[in-house]
Amino acid sequence: xxxxxxxxxxxxxxxxxxxxxxxxxxxxxxxxxxxxxxxxxxxxxxxxxxxxxxxxxxxxxxxxxxxxxxxxxxxxxxxxxxxxxxxxxxxxxxxxxxxxxxxxxxxxxxxxxxxxxxxxxxxxxxxxxxxxxxxxxxxxxxxxxxxxxxxxxxxxxxxxxxxxxxxxxxxxxxxxxxxxxxxxxxxxxxxxxxxxxxxxxxxxxxxxxxxxxxxxxxxxxxxxxxxxxxxxxxxxxxxxxxxxxxxxxxxxxxxxxxxxxxxxxxxxxxxxxxxxxxxxxx
Length: 282
Description:
There is one protein chain. The chain is of the alpha/beta class. About 25% of the residues lie in helices and about 25% in strands. It contains seven helices and 14 strands. A six-stranded mixed beta sheet has the order 1-2-3-6-7-8, covered by helices on one side. Strands 9-10-11-12-13-14 form a six-stranded mixed beta sheet. The chain has a two-stranded antiparallel ribbon with strand order 4-5.
């Protein structure tokens, strides 16, 4: 089995982990969950973080095959289109991104977005679909719950799980976005927990609870034993009740609307303005 090399990049302002995965023998790679730098108060978008990833790929003389999204993120802007413009490659996402587009289109007044025809993404993955990253074979698992389009990319004994789970001391993802479901999240976590206990899980965020050092890789076995929200034996009813009540207490992510507007278009920036819907509380 071809060995997978993984290089992690931490976007500190959004606590996001981006990954470059590759095999040195073939020299081909994929970027998973990239990020742009975005200052909400000024509206300035920069590429410093994405450029670090690009420089790593270039300096290691890798060929970029894929720029992969685990889901339409609500807390950072993807750099997928920017990276593609610099290095080529195809932008891949789960097929249910069209459901996320349909949910947010009316909310954000994106009348020019036709989910059935929009083509910012190069490929829409089906459940259990296999694809190549050079000499590596990756498998797509649909793992909805946090969002309806969430997927996990499994490469050998590595699973890139997006926001479905975090490190064991931080738990699991919220499910209160449009299309989210605590029941689906439970089922998706069981799907991940059905992988071999030695499978390495790579998370998309680490919020460093208690100020601990950065961590972004655990295993199926460790999560089943130690995850504070859902262990291997946690009953579905207990998890769904807990997750539903917890989500009621969470604030809306500060970058929700900028992120969604950009991310459902594969990282293409809108012309001039970000739309933020308002709701009268009086």
